[in-house]
Target: Response regulator
Amino acid sequence: MSQSTLRVLIVDDVAAVRSYLKQILIGLGIPDVTEAADGVEAVSLYQRLQPQLVFLDIQLPDINGKELLRQFKSINGQSQVVMVSAYSSVENLRDSIAAGANGFVVKPFSVQRITHLIQPYLN
Model:
């Protein structure tokens, strides 16, 4: 899959985080990046867009990100989901992987960390 065909959904309730991550992805040559601020909007966009890659915040105002991950996987188990959290606990990582996450990144994240995370999806 090339950068130009990769569809990415960013789900985070903090607009600055969504914007920063979107800028990183666009800078890496991924033009198809959509943002959602909460779980309801995310499910709707996920169903419609069927993204190949999702960056999903663990703590959203309306639903736990791990529960949203389970919903995503039941809709389309092929999507790769990277959980995003401000808390780097072993419990968060373990629970995310158990729920079906393909990766985990801690805020604040760097351009290098995101580049490393998405590399497998660009080849």
User: Anything to note?
Assistant: The chain has a mean pLDDT of 92. Helices lie at 15-27, 39-49, 65-75, 90-98, 111-122. The chain has one domain: 3-122. The domain at 3-122 is CATH 3.40.50.2300 (Rossmann fold).
